TrEMBL record, chains A, B:
This is Beta-hexosaminidase. Keywords: Glycoprotein, Glycosidase, Hydrolase, Signal. Residues 200-531 form the Glycoside hydrolase family 20 catalytic domain. Its EC number is 3.2.1.52. It comes from Dentipellis fragilis.
């Protein structure tokens, strides 16, 4: 079949099943080709729904279009979400990414039928909760599914879900369907019938706010963008060795002495505001207070708990300057456990991370207090580390939280950690099966696929030829191709709760937060919503659409290609 | 001598001669260490002046501080520059980059003497011209030198120069001296005596506005930032194969059919506005209309002049999609020569670039018209290319312009090009001596040191593991270390007119223009003002200062390190 014949099929209704119920079959090659070459970037839903039937009939949104909420006592955050959806429809004004842009569609949409409403219906017999309440449930109790139906027969469109969170995900999809031309909003692909739900619940973005401080407004803007691609988890690496910007009730000295300045602090009020803002947008804030490593700055307020503070040469005692980490002693463990008890009260999520990466051995070996303790008790490093881990994890478990920790803690068989720990695989994708074999649930954030900061060069002052430790740059294509379920049994696959992009901010501030994150982090959003196995050529036109729509909404997303390519799907593939 | 002893010397006056009259001796190690460890980022002048004497006495800028211009009939652009300087003093409010920031200096500046004026004096017997007129002179006729004197005895400060351009450079230096604390502006390093002039006249930044369009306001903001680090040349790669955003009188069809949209066009008025805005800020706009390669988009309006338009596979016919380049035939050469005549009228600079890179041979070999011409005339590719080059260069020379061209045209000994051509070395630094040996003047822009876009990953849609062709990312340190005069004789060194960073915009738009450019492009600014051989450890605290001051002025410059490092000079070196 030639390209002409293929494209002439565009009057038919295609059914797309990119992945079904946990399966990760890839899109049919013929459909991928069809989407890339014939439809171009019209088909702009991101992430790709589980099931999609689309037509090729133009359909207008009427000027008096309205959302109808057929719920008694709808929660306030759902009403706000509807209001934002209305606002995006009015303000996006995104012209379709084809040669000629909006002008190219004036003829096809002239005289098209209109829809005047989208009716939101809550089905099933689930207790009605707010979006906020739904996203704060444990991962396995959430329901994000929805069914969106947009007919062409003049009837209104409907959005059904079992939960307000599902309705919110459906509203997000609805907002991606409409293009602007000459004062009109339209799709060229009605009728549409979408049945959707995510493959993974944890679809995240990690942001480090310690190496450089990120103001509250910039984080809120990031939440907005995350919600547009259905990301569900903000993993907040809030403190580290360089600064301690988190104000914790009862532990105020940590931020007073450890923040870069009085302005560079997240107050309890800021945290509450951020957690609420995120939750209303279907995002769970999982805070990480990295311990026992990455804690040098605590020595500013509590020198008694920190080993090797600012020891030199730093490279012997830490992965990056300054050196210093919490001692693995009863006093320091008790302090840290109490700290987590206080942190647990600030964050309503069911999960909190204690970190656990890059514990430096020479730092402890050269610490007099550690040596004395080991000598006095006959314990070794791993035994004291195990004691520290158990103290901190137990304080979280007592507070009703599921502990999250880094892969080192799961892969060290000399340690005892909680069985229900969620393990973050960050070093390399090769470690994922190793953690799974130990029976833990995992979050996929491996640096070879998911690190947004790789490839930006070495940042040490005098290291002229240095590259970043995780070179090269991880492109959206690289992330998209991560086949992290490969060679796992079904039982093993069920231990993967999802994954996330990670942004470390040694060279990032509010100045480049948007361009380093967007639209790349959307690649992870689809990877974890739709499952691995997607086709990059078919995805690219839709991802251009995501980026251009983000620009319309005030996010400084970068262009992934010359605009010439964005307007001509497929022509800038290597093989075209 | 220990560090303590070294730092105790801070009450003395150090004399710094980083490079004298074309020499490129590097800073003394002891001084570099002193600057990095004792003064920290106080010493914040960028680029480093040719000669600097500094003290360690605190000095305040009085609340009624004023610039005194002791010139009769000062040009308007000098008055505007003074007005901008005043505005920066009022609005920068940059706190010094030390632990505690501004608060750390409250004690030392309490009761310090004040200066109430800076007197601008034009010396020598040079004809008085505006800044605009000075920067539009040929490279060898400019005088950017100045002497800045800031005493501590209560007398006013003075700024002397032979030209308004020199005064402007001195004003820029003056604006870098002052920090903010508690409503006061101060330096800790009076008295100051600076005698300064650049090693190279061409200190540039190349920006591609074809792959993705960059709006006029973003280019103007870039001019402001360029002027703050004394960059002198904006090399405007305005058009390429992907889009033709330049409106040229008499050739309006090129942008009408070749721009991405009617909004993505630089009108004649825009060009005039940009050229003026730049020149008032000491920046010469050297436009580049790349020919005969990189011209596929011309086929939209003039298919008769373009060989292999959008031929596939594109990789056979071009370095990136789409394929297509101007035919090397008399008609096309004549068209292009006339185009350059028209372009020359739009741009007052004494220099214009005809491009000349990446001419694709298979594109011509598979072009019927080229084949017919070669058969009919007995000419070969190089002879027709030589004809094309001469036609285009001659049109510029007739218009009074010096032609700029890429290294390929100088290194191909089968071509005849104008002897006075300025040759841009872009492929690799190893090519610089080769071009010099052919007797041409050169601009250093080699991709292994000067490309801002390297390391951002491959952008072709389906190339999952691709990196950028010029990986890795070029850090500021890498640029700063470029020893491009190595192994040249003095006579050969005199052929180097300077150099520039280059920013190709396949993955850049207004969204990431600032963070990808700043503060890295400042590294080139010092490399070409102060000459190669600088010490990265000593430079870094000053470069942090540049970046933080840019943020205060609204430029989204990235942080080069965690703020912990920026506040503690030297502690984040590899060797510390």
């Amino acid at each position: 079949m030639g390209l002409g014949e293929l494209c002439n099929q565009s009057t038919e209704t295609f059914v797309c099943h990119p992945s079904t119920s946990g399966d990760t079959t890839s899109m049919q090659p013929a459909l991928a080709l069809y989407l890339a070459l014939c439809l171009g970037s019209v088909f702009a839903i991101w992430p790709l729904p589980r099931s999609l039937q689309q037509g090729s009939t133009p359909l207008l949104l009427s000027h008096d279009f309205a959302f109808e909420i057929s719920l008694s006592h709808p929660p306030g955050d759902l009403l706000s979400a509807v209001s934002r959806s209305q606002s995006y429809l009015q303000n996006d004004k995104l012209e379709r990414l084809v040669v000629g842009r909006g002008a190219a569609d004036r003829a096809p949409i002239s005289g098209a039928k209109q829809i005047s409403s989208l009716k939101l219906v809550l089905g099933g017999n689930r207790t009605m909760r707010s979006i906020t309440e739904e996203i704060l449930l444990p991962l396995e109790e959430r329901d994000e599914s929805y069914i969106l139906d947009i007919p062409t027969n003049g009837a209104g469109a409907t959005l059904q879900a079992n939960s307000t969170l599902g309705l919110f995900r459906g509203l997000t999809t609805f907002g991606q369907l409409w293009y602007y031309s000459d004062g009109k909003l339209y799709t060229l692909e009605a009728p549409l019938h979408i049945e959707d739900s995510p493959v993974f619940s944890w679809r995240g973005l990690l942001l480090d706010t310690s190496r450089n401080f990120i103001p509250v407004d910039d984080i809120k803007r990031t939440f907005d963008a995350m919600s547009w691609v259905k990301l569900s988890t903000f993993h907040w690496h809030v403190v580290d060795s360089q600064s301690f910007p988190l104000q914790i009730p009862g532990f105020e000295e940590l931020s007073q002495k450890g923040a870069y300045s009085a302005d560079a602090v997240y107050t309890s009020g800021d945290v509450q505001e951020l957690v609420s803002y995120a939750a209303e947008r279907g995002i769970d804030v999982v805070v990480e207070v990295d311990t026992p490593g990455h804690t040098a700055i605590i020595s500013e307020s509590h020198p008694e708990f920190v080993a090797c503070p600012q020891f030199t040469p730093w490279a012997t005692f830490a992965e990056e300057p300054p050196a210093g980490q919490l001692r693995l002693l009863p006093d320091a463990a008790n302090f840290t456990a109490n700290l987590f008890t206080a942190v647990a009260k600030m964050f309503p999520s069911s999960m909190i991370s204690t970190g656990g990466d890059e514990v430096n051995v020479p730092c402890y070996e050269q610490d007099l207090e550690m040596q004395q303790y080991w000598n006095a008790t006959g314990q070794n490093l791993n035994q004291t580390l195990s004691m520290f881990m158990q103290a901190t994890q137990q304080s979280l478990i007592k507070a009703g939280k599921t502990p999250v920790t880094k892969e080192e803690m799961a892969l060290n068989d000399q340690l005892t950690i909680a069985n229900n720990s969620l393990i973050l695989v960050w070093k390399t994708s090769a470690d994922l099966p190793r953690v799974i074999e130990r029976g833990f649930r995992v979050i996929f954030a491996a640096s070879d696929y998911m690190y947004l900061d790789c490839g930006a060069g070495g940042w040490l002052g005098d290291d002229v030829n240095a590259t970043s430790w995780c070179d090269p740059f991880k492109t959206w294509q690289k992330t998209y191709s991560a086949d992290f379920l490969a060679n796992l049994t079904d039982a093993q696959k069920s231990l993967v709760v999802g994954g996330q992009h990670q942004l470390w901010t040694e060279q990032t501030s509010a100045a480049n937060l948007d361009p380093i994150t967007w639209p790349r982090a959307a690649s992870g959003a689809e990877l974890f919503w739709s499952g691995p196995g997607g086709n990059v050529s078919a995805a690219l036109p839709r991802l251009h659409d995501v980026a251009y729509r983000m620009i319309q909404r005030g996010i400084k997303a970068i262009p992934l290609q010359p605009q010439w390519c964005a307007l001509r799907p497929g022509l800038c593939d290597l093989t075209s």
